[in-house]
Write a structure and sequence with these properties.
The complex is a heterodimer.
Chain A: H1 2-12, E1 16-22, H2 28-36, E2 40-44, E3 51-58, E4 64-69, H3 81-90, E5 102-108, H4 112-123, E6 129-134, H5 136-141, E7 144-146, H6 148-155, E8 158-161, H7 170-179, H8 194-209, H9 214-226, H10 232-235, H11 240-253, H12 258-277, E9 278-280, H13 288-296, H14 301-319, H15 321-342, H16 347-364, H17 367-382, H18 385-399, H19 407-412, H20 417-423, H21 430-439, H22 449-459, E10 464-465, E11 469-470, H23 471-496, E12 507-510, H24 518-552, H25 564-574, H26 576-588, H27 595-603, H28 610-618, H29 629-637, H30 650-662, H31 667-676, H32 680-711
Parallel strand pairs in A: 1-4, 1-5, 5-6, 6-8
Antiparallel strand pairs in A: 2-3, 3-4, 7-9, 10-11
Helix pairs in contact in A: 4-12, 6-12, 8-9, 8-11, 9-12, 14-17, 15-16, 15-17, 16-24, 16-28, 17-24, 20-31, 21-23, 22-23, 22-29, 22-30, 23-30, 24-28, 26-27, 27-28, 30-32, 31-32
Chain B: H1 2-9, H2 12-15, H3 18-21, E1 30-31, E2 40-46, H4 50-58, E3 66-71, E4 76-80, E5 83-87, H5 89-92, E6 95-99
Antiparallel strand pairs in B: 1-6, 2-3, 2-6, 3-4, 4-5
Classes of the chains: A alpha/beta, B alpha+beta.
Chain lengths: ~725, ~100
Amino acid sequence: MTSLASRTSAAATSDLRVALIGNPNTGKSTLFNALTGLRQKVGNYAGVTVERVEGRYKRATGGQVVLVDLPGTYSLTALSPDEEIALAVLLGQEADVPRPDVVVIIADALHLERNLFLASQVIGLGLPTVLALNQFDAAEDAGISIDVPALIAALGVAVIPTVATRGDGLDALRRAIEQAPGFPPADLRLPLGEPIEAALAPLVAKLEASGLESPAAHMQALRLLAVPSPEPHLRVVPGVPEAVEATRTAVAAAGRDPYRLEAEVRYAWIDEVVRGAVARQRPAGRTVSDRLDAVLLHRVWGPLVFLVLLALVFQAVFTWATPLMDGIDAAVSGVGNWVAGAMPEGLLRGLLVEGVIGGAASVLVFLPQIAILFLLLGILEDSGYMARAALLMDRLMRAVGLPGRSVIPLISGYACAVPAIMSTRTIADPKDRLATIMVLPLTSCSARLPVYTLLIGAFVPATLVGGVLDLRGVTLFSMYAIGTVMALAMAWVFRRTLLRGPVRPLILELPPYRLPHPKGLLLAVWHRVQLFLRRAGTVILALSVVLWALATWPRTDVSPDLPPAAAAEAQLEGSALGHIGKAIEPLVRPLGFDWKIGVSIAASFAAREVFVTTMGTIYGVSDPDAESGSLRDALRAARDPATGGPAYTTLTAVGLMVFYVFALMCMSTLAITLRETGGGAVGARWAAIQFAYMLVLAWVSAYVVRLVGLANGWGLG
Amino acid sequence: MRTLLNRITGRSAALATPLARGEAGPCAECALVTCRAGVRSVVVALRCDAPEACRLRTLGLIEGAPVTVVDCRHGLLLEVRGARVAISAAIARLVNVRPLAA
């Protein structure tokens, strides 16, 4: 007793590591945000791209509580990378993540029965555990009465009713977290019966010998019987795969199906717990979600609503962001002009104004679009609509060999391919996942918007189509549409060639519709904006400076009699950038592109947004964002030195946009593909295939656009 | 005309099932995919591949558990232990159930 008291006292002043785990849609992230506020850090677990979210708050006694928000999961069955990570963290087997001191299970009070499956697995691991019974108010409203003391007695852990959206129960939860290490660890033993316990014993012993503590080894033994194959790190433990097979045989000999055993005993236990602790005041009837689903999952209205929502998202990104973009544009231009006015003419001024400020401008101006896009996607996700979208799209996706679940990463790809590829981790089947990753960059991400916006603004007239739709909006929508259609077509090709195999059928929980929580949404948007800025602040800004240097050296002797614009162009033509552009020109000339576009395409391999910056550098525009009129005017005014006619036409612009729809001009996407497809030589092979097929597709498509356009006389002006 | 209207408005899946037509009483055992919306039944066997069976069981769709078909327009939308779970028709063909009398 003394040692326990002193241990508790010493621990009270140091950091306490707490893991948060729960089913998806239980309000886990809302609770995490409520506990930690803005003190959060987002990264990845070592070797994989499962998102690692950590936050912290101060303990009243000194030290800090470090919270790890584990991925949402229905069980610890480890059938997906998310589940594997959650299990590994709780077992203390995840590199660089110490085993948590306390586990907090977030259970949805409305669906306690289903949530208790994961809870029983977690409690069975023998860690100090607290169960947060979230959305307690919604359960009461639905006529569900939960006897908390009875639940505490049945589970053997502290149970705290919470309403995370209002902050109710958070103080009690913090106190329970503090006290949990002082209590004896939970020891949930399901009633298996003597013959089954005897059959399990050799496997439990084998797992204990591999380093697991007794309760965790018992829980693992039961779990391993149900899964098709042990997870990779267990497969290499000598004797474990054989012991699993032997135990299955012994369990079958004892009269039970080994694959069904875990689910059967857990749900039998859950039924007993629910009978003793949960009372339903009135039978569950047709819910609001059911009524909404009657429309949103309707065979006709469902897909229509889906398309309308997508169109609204695009229109919002294109129109709502404009005033904010104009504001940022004006502010950055003002800074550029002030610096230009305050400094004497020279290389340093060129570096600052054209390299640094110009580069930063082209990046910052797109923050509103990215924020709005992630906000809207977040609303669709948190409201529960994304799961419906997956269900609606399942038949279409299945026709091309992808599961319905792929639609969520594909839709996320419209914002940015990098997090979208990361989100494919929720797809359990490796071939489904790989096929989704391979085609995902074909959906037009927000980084293509600068290119589309610049070219549409410069070359597509603001006329009305059918008296209602703006032709520029229609053009933008078309770019998204052809990327989407090609993504589906390429998925069909991949699933019949390199990734041939069966498509795993759809199994998906549809969460009840909910109003998204504003704080959680804004925090998620802030995390994405931070990621974008980090990327912009490093890669793109650095590249902008490099490009300025390439355009500045070697210096060309220019006649002082030339007008400034002609002098700038002569300097550029003689520079390193000019030489690179001339070298690329034969490759892009068949597409109707000149050396200036060629060099911009080459430079934008780092990131598509750089295309705009490079064109700005080439045309000597100090604030080269797609919305500013100066670069658009420069492009419209550019003349072909050979013919004297316009250097760029609407046909050139459409060809260029089609090229950018298909070409994989993004180092970050290639890097994430490499990592997500296995890393090393295997990952490099898939990344190379992705880059090559998309480049071929881009070149051929742009060439076809030009041929068709010229044949119809569209390339003249 | 009514059939066409039903097809457009998504009622055809329900009307296509023997149970919905009322031509026979609830069968002793049948595939879940043949059940119309509103039918409550008990899971008898999961004949799907091991990963899918494992996933269904963790979601509460275990042998002996009650399940209600809520909707059958896009695969099957089920009520399982108070939650809504959507499964494709392909997998619903491999779930054997015993319908309960209304």
